[in-house]
Amino acid sequence: MNALEFTAIRKSFADLLAVDDLSFQVRDGEVFGFLGGNGAGKTTSLRMVLDIIRPDKGEISIFGRPPDRKRSGEIGFLPEERGLYRTMKVLDTIVYYGQLKGMSAADARAEGRALLERFGLAAFERTRIDKLSKGMAQKVQLATAVVNKPRLLILDEPFSGLDPLNQGLLEDEIRRARDGGATVIFSTHVMQHAERLCDRLLLLAKGRKRFEGTQDEARALLPARLSVITRADAATLPGVQSADAGAPLADDEGDGWREWEVKLAPGVDPGDVLERCVAAGVPLRRFEQRRASLHDAFVHIVGPSFIDPAGKPIPNKPSQGEAA
Ligand SMILES: Nc1ncnc2c1ncn2[C@@H]1O[C@H](COP(=O)(O)OP(=O)(O)OP(=O)(O)O)[C@@H](O)[C@H]1O
Fold this sequence. Notes:
Layout: E1 2-13, E2 16-27, E3 31-35, H1 42-49, E4 57-62, E5 75-78, H2 90-100, H3 105-118, H4 134-146, E6 152-156, H5 164-179, E7 183-188, H6 191-197, E8 200-205, E9 208-214, H7 215-219, E10 225-230, E11 240-248, E12 258-264, H8 270-279, E13 284-290, H9 294-302
Parallel strand pairs: 3-7, 3-8, 5-6, 6-7
Antiparallel strand pairs: 1-2, 1-4, 8-9, 10-12, 10-13, 11-12
Helix pairs in contact: 2-3, 2-4
Family: Belongs to the ABC transporter superfamily.
Protein name: ABC-2 type transport system ATP-binding protein
Organism: Nitrospirillum amazonense
């Protein structure tokens, strides 16, 4: 059974179509990345999973059943607009949320302490939320989302506002949840996190799905790039679309050995090219495929403007309640 399924979901706000005929599936136990630039429809989609807002059309299924706020114990959610009760103390906050999700106070306290230890916040368990830094409060909010080990964890822009050390800590926590059997969905503007964590990805642009699949499937959409050292003119090799020659190699004694940056024609398999070169006796010292970045793959799919280059979320929503 899939952890989450969207079938032909549509959601408008007045005359703005925020999510347009969106269908995708998240498999049970995978880490799934929700990618797209500002206003792509990520948060709107995640809020529909949580039943905070409802779709105009289409169907959502979570472990085979429709969204329902009463299922909050099954789903851990870190919203994009962070917010905790400012005057509550750190451990009390985690225990409060644990109990809301059906845990006993003792279990929530024990798990809360373990989380604070892992998050480097053990010394702050009695500190009021409003005395914490923004990043610290964010970690406490993450703790409230994971305290009961939900089977589905939904994190909206979880990395924003965290320094690199804490971003690493969050990556570890996502892997830990996955290793414990949870399905994790997170949205991000920043490719590197997705690259390190995601089994599969969804790329949204202007509310529409532009790609769904694995990282390798995304990369396979790009023409292959190679680094080749040869004495031949690399532009004449089979399947090559373009080839840029570097300077002659330092140890070259007039034989014409050069390093070339080669781009194959779309759909051409580097393995086939290598076989044909060997069969034809092309002199080769190196024939190496360059691994494309996810960023390159997505620029290829949606164009250069698909993502905010600084990776900074633009605050475009009202905050809820007493935000920390
Ligand atoms: N409650 C709302 N009322 C009106 N418009 C909304 C509302 N929520 C979202 N929108 C609009 O819907 C579109 C999609 O927004 P959404 O927040 O889902 O995008 P996002 O991909 O999460 O973007 P970001 O990365 O900037 O958070 C945007 O144009 C946004 O302004």
